[in-house]
Fold this sequence. Notes:
Jelly Rolls; 3 domains; Thrombin, subunit H; mainly beta
Amino acid sequence: MKNQILFNLKYMIKDLIVILIILLILSYNAIGQPAPMQSEYKEVNIVSAIHNNPKIMFESFSDSGISWKAKPVEKKHVSVPGADWIRIHFEDYNLGQESFIRIYGSDGAKQELNTVSMQNWDYLSARFNGGIVAIYLYKSPDDDGIYFRVKNVSVGKNNEEKKLDISEINISDKEATCGIKDDRIRLENQDLRIARVMGVGCTAWLIADGSLLTAGHCVGPKMTYVEFNVPLSNEDGATNAPFPIHAYPIDLQSIKFTPPTQDLTDNTDNYGKEWAVFRVHPNSNHGLLPHQAYNNFFRISNTRLGESLRITGFGIDNSPPGKKSPNFRNSFSQTQQTHFGNYLEEIIVDSNQAYLSYRVDTMKGNSGSPIIESEDPTVSIGIHTDAGCQDSDNSGNKGTSFNNEELVKFINSNYINSEIFIDQVHPIVRTRQDGNESDGTLLKPYISISEALNKDYTDKILNIIAGSYNEQNLLIDQPTKINALFGSVIIGR
């Protein structure tokens, strides 16, 4: 009952927080590029026993992966025939200090949830493909009163947007593709810096401090977790989930964003204004954050290096038309695809509105994608936000650039008072002769350790991006924490 009261209070507060977000972005889908995923609730009413006796165990159960003293005490099945995927909603539970729940999917997927990760996941599981899961309750001898209760599950269903006639496909494509056809290609070896934002159907990507960036209009009550390393969709375009080791719940309190304006009479008024920055909680299975698990990230820069750009993200796909979907979506839909094309221009309206224009194919679901430098794919120069390509070669899709000072300020606000970044191969190395000076931030890191030590580094953490720094006779004359990011840092040879 205590947990139930906390749940009710939590959701009352959450509803008040998101109501303004809903009002601001509800009407933006016409020019933004999210692709919301469809689901519905099913009532299941599954209740475990309350376990107090540590000696009640499944004697016949064996799992070589178990290394904890907690042992399985109960098993429940959930089945929803015909569901594309399923998520468990835990209405109430008590897992004590060391007990946990382990959920198994029919394809071998597995997720563990303890007291902390259950709260991080907002009392839901990750997605499991198909309509059948098994829930095991593991009890520690030191915990009493262990139980769980499931009242509802979410299940995936086919996308129910307006059904298209086959003759409408080319019209639909022209919302965001920049030529006669969609030239995006699927990446077999996925870029693990880039994630699919679940619920809203957007894209997000990692930067060096572990934050993720996406479009402002993606923020809303359904933006709750991200998936990396996603598999092919079904033939009807319904998405499949990766194993839960690639799923991360969003830290809702970390979200900072500027949404699009409500006045949609002139689309250009929104270009370059909107963005979102957020963090995620550790994965409930392995306990790592995504930048730790995948050991990779995008450098961010406000300086363009070449004349071509790349967009990689999770847009819908109906080219070629899928045969089993009412909207002709195919198995590549909302999987990771990429395309490169020409940079057109950057427009800086004021300090808080700056946008890029480019002839690069995108579709709904690409909102939030990184705008990647083709000459240096470690670098992103902005966040893709809007469709804009038409038949004219001068028209282009749009995205917020890192010349938006408000965006950069909020990225810096995660660490500015305590951390300094050092990266000897950041693009700023090539532009410093033009007066683009380093300041130790992610956008403008120092390019050497000695440069950072010549500044005020009192009570600062020196975050050094992986590499070999051929620097000798470095003098550190005060207690300093040095943090190697994304691999080994070699100093002095």
